[in-house]
Amino acid sequence: MLWDNHMHSNFSGDSDAEPISMIKAAKVKGLAGMTFTDHLDLDYPAQFGFFDLDIENYYPLQRKLALEESNENFTVLTGIEVGIQPHVAEQCNKIVNANPYDFVIGSTHLVDKWDPYFDSFWERGSETALLKRYYESILENITVYTNFDSLGHLDYAFRYVKTPSIKNDTHKPYAEIVDAILKRIIQLDKALEINTAALRKGMLGPNPAPSIIKRYHELGGKLITLGADAHTPTDVAADFEKLPDLLEECGFKEYVVYKNRKPEAYPLR
Ligand SMILES: [Zn+2]
Ligand SMILES: [Zn+2]
């Protein structure tokens, strides 16, 4: 009985899913609960598409639905996934604080205003140099912005790498900067998110890779959150059956669910 604490609905620019369809899928899959974490990506470049969150309606409508659909066996929580960029940090802070969210994911979707999802990101230099810059920008982001509970999909940019050997080599060549990121999260008492969407994007493990999860544990990291990053009902809790073995191997027996911005521990099995 796991929770899926990272998913999107049609409040996100890249999802057409009615919120109720995500809830129904989570119930059918036998989850104990779920958290909506629709995208807040302020100043997302228009050339890449429309990404504005309907801030006025998001919290009230999702909260109303969460209350209606929760029962003694199943809980729906209301969260948000902040796409951090240094120049919008203060604005994100205000929006997050305006409503009592259960859970806030801090993610890096843009690096110097370029989106790794698109080829144009990769046409600007060597893959490894751009990936190093990706990690640096995460560290910059969580230096200026700390109003989040879990660091979303660290090593996410690798999903879109073309060279297979580089795509799954997300730790060793960047060990120093990855360590700095992990130490920063631990110092801030934040969680590390384990995001299974990577497995649907041709990666061998979740984001981040098991060796990074292991390293987080070694450094004293205790809090992990789980999410499939579903944008459709089919992907809710996708590949979650792989998580208990994989995470135990990395030193974890428990994961946490944030309720009212506070972590609550649950056993992995
Ligand atoms: Zn994301
Ligand atoms: Zn997401």
Under the CATH scheme, which class? Alpha Beta
CATH superfamily: Metal-dependent hydrolases
Please summarize the sheet with the most strands: 7 strands, parallel
Secondary structure class reads: alpha/beta
Percentage beta strand:
15-25%
The arrangement of helices and strands along the chain is EHEHEHEHHEHHEHHEHEE
**What would the CATH topology be?**
TIM Barrel
Tell me the number of helical segments per DSSP (H or I, 4 or more residues long).
Answer: 10
CATH architecture: Alpha-Beta Barrel
Domain tally:
1
Distance between the termini: 8 Å
What is the spatial order of strands in the main beta sheet?
Answer: 1-2-3-4-5-6-7
The hetero molecules present are:
zinc ion
The pLDDT mean sits at 97
The counted number of beta strands is: 9
Question: What does this 3D model show about the protein?
Answer:
The structure is a single chain. This protein has a single domain, classed as Metal-dependent hydrolases (TIM Barrel, Alpha-Beta Barrel). The strands form two sheets. Strands 1-2-3-4-5-6-7 form a seven-stranded parallel beta sheet. A two-stranded antiparallel sheet has the order 8-9. It has helices spanning 19-28, 55-69, 89-97, 119-122, 127-144, 164-167, 175-188, 197-200, 210-218, 243-249; strands at 3-7, 33-40, 75-83, 103-107, 150-151, 191-195, 224-227, 254-259, 262-267. With 269 residues, it is of the alpha/beta class. The termini are close together.
List its salient traits.
binds zinc ion, single chain, two-stranded antiparallel sheet, 10 helices, TIM Barrel, 269 residues, alpha/beta
